[in-house]
Amino acid sequence: MSNLSSDSNLEKVFAAGHFAVTGECGPPRGTDAEVVLKKGKLLKGFVDAVNVTDNQTAVVRMSSWAAAYHLKSIGLEPNYQLVCRDRNRIAMQSDILGAASLGINTMLCLSGDHQTFGDHPQAANVFDLDSMQLIHTVRKMCDEGKFLSGEEIKKPPRLFVGAAANPFADPFEMRVLRLAKKIAAGAQFIQTQCIYNIPKFAKYMEMVRDRGLHQKVKIMAGVTPMKSVGMARYMKNNVPGMDVPDEIIKRLQGVEKGKQSDEGIKILLEDIQRLREIEGVAGLHIMAIEWEEKVPEIVERAGLLPRPQV
Amino acid sequence: MVSPHDKVLVVGCGGCVTVCNSGGRKEVAVIASALRLAAQRAGREMEIDETNLERQCDPEFLEELRPVIGDYDAVLSLACGAGVQFVAERYLDQTVYPGLNTTFIGVALGNGEWAERCAACGDCLLGVTGGICPIARCAKRLFNGPCGGSSQGKCEIGPGTDCAWQLVYDKLMALGRLDRLEQFIPPKDWTTNKDGGPRKYRREDLAI
């Protein structure tokens, strides 16, 4: 285990050859750490790491490093998300140092949703770096012990560095190329956008395997359970880069309102089964948005318990 | 803005604002008439005069205002932001107002429709990206390919905006140069952009 790049539990789980499971925790729109701790406690023992979102959909929330630290305090492995939208390279490198100083071992580098989606559409965006350049920056900090400027870091961070991939955005053919580029920039694991169109994802993975990329990086399939047909329609029509096939909407429509959430979980479990059969899928990233209490049941029914102690 | 003044000079510019039908001779006449009408309706006695300069970004043309500008309480410049400032700084004791909101460096897509193309970053990337600028045309100014929000050629911010990286992809595909997309574009040096401070350029061969 000595050749690991960090103390990340997620990295250790992968290194030990396990199929990994991660969850997600959106920080609150206020100062109450209890909200984070409550969500964290629901996930403890059921996932190998918990993504802590960074002002997701450009809505102001508690900073992701702080929420990540709260999760760390109750023994969870936070996956600290950092977006390029809100900070320049000075602030990002500073936050990475701060996060690492708090014992954060895992991070995810993202572009970030455009601010027009959020609660401050008037804001200026930054995008000094893009997600690719952020991955490159973090790896430079960790591996070379240097800032982007080339100056030396005293006690560099040790992080397991991830990136996102959306197999369903356009141009489709460019998605694998972009994944290859993220790996070349230094991404060690990938979490995908929510997958509902499994045949399309399978096609993507085929292209990934053609380039041997699945052997260079751990790819975690992203899933989100549908709570209702309303949510499915919203995801289909309003969330950028989301591919929700009509069959899912029809299937949810086919059951009475009170049972739609059960049906959503059933669809999810079937999808998880199919995703696990795709060669190159090394883990599952469950984004149960404001439905964290369902994660233990999902992980259990998917046959992914107990989580490995590594 | 100009309503408290009794005597206003509306100044047009024969440069870019004339070409894009926003601050040339014709627009000066329209704005001046509108002001006269508004004053009349408000029961105010206002004198609105019109003049047009070849350009408002060159000292030699701005000098043409010198004999008359002192007769006015205020100047309304229909030049771009550069022209407005140049008038204001050249005539220190004159009140100068902007008549336009200067928006972007762009092109005329057709009659009456313009679109942004250049962000004037000072370090051109177009040779690498197939002639499409991700700084001016990507809402996140990404350098290494489209984000996850690109859908059917459109940007996540709305169907009215093309995804710049889809355009780059299409162009490089047509050129048979998709290999360029594999190239990692490192963090940009923004010092040539406005981040480096107000920019100035001097050509010794032209300076006397």
Question: How does this structure look, described?
Answer:
The complex is a heterodimer of chains A (310) and B (208). Chain A is of the alpha/beta class and 310 residues long. Chain A has a single domain (9-226, 280-301), classed as TIM Barrel (Alpha-Beta Barrel), CATH 3.20.20.220. Chain A has helices at residues 9-15, 33-43, 64-73, 89-101, 131-144, 172-185, 198-210, 229-238, 246-253, 260-276, 295-301, and strands at 20-25, 49-52, 78-83, 106-110, 160-165, 189-194, 218-223, 281-286. In chain A, helix 9 (246-253) packs antiparallel against helix 10 (260-276). Chain A is globular, with a radius of gyration of 19 Å. Chain B has 2 domains: 7-98, Response regulator (Rossmann fold); 109-194, no CATH class. Chain A binds chain B through residues 84-85, 89, 111-114, 116-117, 125, 127-133, 136-137, 148, 164-166, 169-171, 173-174, 177-178, 180-181, 184-185, 193, 240-241, and chain B through 139-153, 156-158, 163, 165-166, 169-170, 178, 181-182, 184-187, 190.
List the helices and strands and how they pair.
The complex is a heterodimer of chains A (310) and B (208).
Chain A: H1 9-15, E1 20-25, H2 33-43, E2 49-52, H3 64-73, E3 78-83, H4 89-101, E4 106-110, H5 131-144, E5 160-165, H6 172-185, E6 189-194, H7 198-210, E7 218-223, H8 229-238, H9 246-253, H10 260-276, E8 281-286, H11 295-301
Parallel strand pairs in A: 1-2, 1-8, 2-3, 3-4, 4-5, 5-6, 6-7, 7-8
Helix pairs in contact in A: 9-10
Chain B: E1 7-13, H1 16-19, H2 25-41, E2 47-53, H3 59-62, H4 66-69, E3 74-77, H5 81-90, E4 95-98, E5 105-110, E6 113-118, H6 134-137, E7 154-155, E8 158-162, H7 164-175
Parallel strand pairs in B: 1-2, 1-3, 3-4
Antiparallel strand pairs in B: 5-6, 7-8
